[in-house]
Specification:
Structural class: mainly beta
CATH architecture: Distorted Sandwich
CATH topology: Beta-galactosidase, Chain A, domain 5
Distance between the termini: 29 Å
Shape: globular
Largest sheet: 7 strands, antiparallel
Number of domains: 1
Strand content: 35-45%
Radius of gyration: 16 Å
């Protein structure tokens, strides 16, 4: 069970999301909150790993502040697939040139993903030409499993799997 609280503070909205134990339900692929903004929110600035990174594949990218467009946050794969995650994020802002929405880490960094389409739409895309922008989608991850399937190469190392037998919390501040 997930319990969300949204608390108004002097600095913005404090979002706290807690997932409770579900003993015996296996592993959790991800624990996150996603938000949709209008597609005019195209300018991104974030402080995190500078390239696509995951918990088990991130050390090659230093933590820096980067400015780019939403389209730069995903990889141009021939067949669209999940991409563009940024680890160790402490702050991310998305702007339309007039208004800015900022997501600040509270207590510990999060993983950031910003796409021009939903994860659900991504599942149905067969070719790069199928990528149609429908908004700006910001996902703040407490975690997601490491990469690897074991099909052709190593599987996911145990330290990058998240058991449903544990409780987890995600906290961040939204400023606007």
């Amino acid at each position: 069970m997930v319990v969300d609280t949204y608390e108004g503070t002097d600095d913005g909205i404090l979002v706290t999301s807690r997932i409770h134990k579900t003993v015996g339900a296996g592993t959790l692929p991800r624990f996150a909150k996603s938000f949709r903004l209008d597609e005019s929110f195209d300018d991104v600035t974030y402080t995190a790993r500078t390239g696509e990174s995951y918990a088990d594949m991130k050390e090659q990218f230093p933590v820096r502040t980067v400015s780019c467009k939403v389209a730069d946050m995903t990889e141009p794969n021939l067949r669209p697939q999940e991409s563009g995650n940024r680890c160790d994020c402490t702050s991310a802002s998305v702007s339309d040139g007039t208004a800015t929405v900022t997501f600040e880490a509270v207590e510990k960094p999060y993983e950031l993903n910003i796409k021009p389409y939903t994860d659900e739409a991504l599942k149905h895309m067969k070719h790069r030409e199928d990528e149609v922008r429908t908004g700006t989608y910001v996902t703040i991850n407490a975690f997601q499993m490491g990469i690897g399937t074991g099909a052709c190469g190593p599987g996911i190392a145990p330290e990058y799997k998240y058991s449903s037998d544990e409780a987890y919390e995600l906290k961040f501040l939204i400023k606007y």
